[in-house]
Amino acid sequence: MRLKYSIFACLLLHSNIVAQDRISLDTVSVTATKYEKATKYISESIAVVDEKTIEDKNILNVQDALQTIPGVIAESTSNSPSPKLIIRGAGLKARFGVREIMVMKDGIPMTDPDSFTRFDFIDMQDVSNIEVQKGPGSINAINSTGGVIQLITKSVFEEDKNRIKFGVGNENQRNVNIKLREKLDENNFVSLTFSKRKTDNSWRDNNEFDTTQATLKYGYIFKDYSSIENEISYTESNLNLPASMNQTEFDEFKRSKEQHNTSYAWQNSARDSKIFSFSSKYEKEIGDLLLKPRLYFNSWEHFHPVTGLINDSDDNKVFGTDLEFNISHNLFKQDAMFVGGLTLKMDRTKDAKKYEYRDYSTFGGRISKTLSNEKGSLANIEDSKTTLYGIYLMESFKINDDLGFDISTRVDKLKFDIEGNEISKYDYPTGKYISGQGEYNIDNSFTLLSSKLGSSYAISDFTNVYASVAFANQAPTTSELDETSDLKKSSSTNYEVGVKTRTNNLSYDLALYQNYVDDEIIQIKDASGNSIYDNAGKTNKKGLEFNLSYDLTSTLEVGGSYSYSKFKFDKFNEKVWANLVSRDGNYLPSIPKNQYALYLAYNQNGFKTRVTTRTFGSYYMDNANTQKYEGYKFITDLMIGYEFKAHNIQLNVNNLFDKYYASEASKDTGSGVSYKAASPRMTMLTYSYKF
After folding, report:
1. Dihedral sign, CA of 74, 77, 80, 83?
2. What does the pLDDT read at residue 485?
3. Is the model's pLDDT at 9 over the cut of 70?
4. DSSP states of 37-53 as a string?
5. Neighbour tally for 286: CB within 10 Å
6. Distance in angstroms (rounded) separating the CA atoms of residues 169 and 177
7. In angstroms, rounded to a whole number, what is the distance separating the alpha carbons of residues 164 and 176?
């Protein structure tokens, strides 16, 4: 696939499937360029998941909203808000959580300065729509080359009905959600969202989950029509993380449809969190100038038993501000917008402790199985501070009515300051606890650049073509620096062209890209089960993404998405035991070449139904490309519901045909394979009432 031919393919596709007499309003993005702009005119690939889709699919976890977007891999190994997210290969290195992808809520970063994101404290039942920007160079992306996920909740100023919602399902699923909003007077507004969820996941060991979340918003409109919106939220989340399976156990899981008594040593992994957050957003217009400063703070604690050690950290603070401004003006006798701002964020942790497991059995001197997650001897204590500050600028303008440009850049400075004392550690080769290195100090900093030049051209009233080139850096994370302090930042350069069409009954997007990455940070899973990190010399990622929706009638809609990914190492020497082995020309693991989804939605006279099916192609399980996992086919979700005035009742069935497959399959540098099971059929009946 050569990009120089791609624009002709775009135009050919457009001419074959679009009739030229149909025009409609486009979906509006409110985040891609930091001001409202129809997605058709945005010179990059962007996907929008709207409120109706979120409601129809009864989306409770973010991965359920993203898993049919082309170029996005969104899977959960724990059937909870703990997904693995990959956008165009970025995020692949994450051992847990989400890396290399910027996640924001209402313009407030949820992602830590070192690119780590926790989804525990995001209540999807408070989210009205989601925007996904793919690839490097976004003005919103801080230390994130994979793209940006923006979660948009309903503003306290938006008129909305109150709602109460109840849901029950198999595996003892329970869900309660209450949303209240009140206009106190012409200037004062308040809203409250409360959610409580639980599920037992009894089909496998150690996978119970429950969460309680509350969000209070207060807004005030001043006499000069400026406004301030404040949000306070609290989350308590308790999640047990299930064990991995070897090949024999995975085969037994597919046969018996349950996962019990696996041989994995770490049977008592978990992540229990308590999170308090506050944010404040102010907007004021002064002529053509719009000021949009934001302040935010969160405090969190977690108890997190993982492989080898138990993390227990209860003094973690995040402080940040984003001082944004927009200036509307004229350029080339056309409307233009200049956006700029300053970012400052600090993530501070004190007395973070790691403990040995207290209760475990041994075999041959190795830890063979944990018996509880009770803490044993103190293994490590650490203080860390991560600071980030930066500046961003963007100009969006048009030469004439048809041709527009977006030019953006940002520069960020990221600094790590880590001090600790490693008393003991888990030694992967021997499988036992040994003496640690003692006191240590890591002091490192990175200058991160991000820029993009994009252009969009209207070839008709309903179709635009675009082209862009973007560049961004990605720094290693604090946990990766703990392992290898000499890791270098990676550099990602992306070339992309595409076409977007919007008519009254047809919408489609086609994108083709080529992404060159130097010094990409790669996860290596050694034969002892340890994840280590190294810089690959060069990787080359080529891809095609297509998304389409079509209204067959006023009541029946069909659509689908497809992505083709060809991601290879151009140059990479992987450390295997004491030797370096060339992986040049190999495919990156865990990324299928082909991935697609189809859906059909029907809505008439209150009755509604939606069927979605997705297929995930085969992929290599290791950097050496020695073994493939077959992927999965036609995992189907069904919704049937009925709305009558203020009442809504619907049945959602995920994995309708109860297929048993792996959400993640990997292989280490030896011969060990590991599988993490996807959820079997899950059914929930939900009733909601608006008042």
Report:
1. negative
2. 62
3. no
4. EEGGG-SS-EEEE-HHH
5. 10
6. 15
7. 8
| Mean pLDDT value of segment 153-160 | 94
Nearest partner of 497 among 462, 459, 461, 469, judged by Cα = 469
CA distance linking residue 340 with residue 413, whole number of Å: 17
pLDDT band at 31 (very low <50, low <70, confident <90, very high): low
How many angstroms from the chain centroid is the CA of residue 673? 26
- Other CB atoms within a 10 A radius of the CB of residue 176 amount to 15
What is the tens place of the pLDDT at every residue in 404-422? 999 999 999 999 999 999 9
Tokens 């702009």 found at: 37
For residue 395, the Cα-to-chain-centroid distance in whole angstroms is: 27
Helix (H) or strand (E) holding 55: helix 51-56
Q: Compute the distance between CA of residue 384 and CA of residue 624 in angstroms, rounded to an integer.
A: 35
| Beta-bridge mates of residue 72 | 87
Residue 137: name the closest of 55, 9, 44 by CA: 44
Residue 259: DSSP 8-state: B
Amino acid at 360: Y
Contact call for residues 301 and 315 (beta carbons, < 8 A): yes
Q: In what order do the strands lie in the sheet with 46-49?
A: 46-49, 127-134, 147-153, 102-105, 108-109
pLDDT tens, position by position, 170-218: 999 999 999 999 999 999 999 999 999 999 999 999 999 999 999 999 9
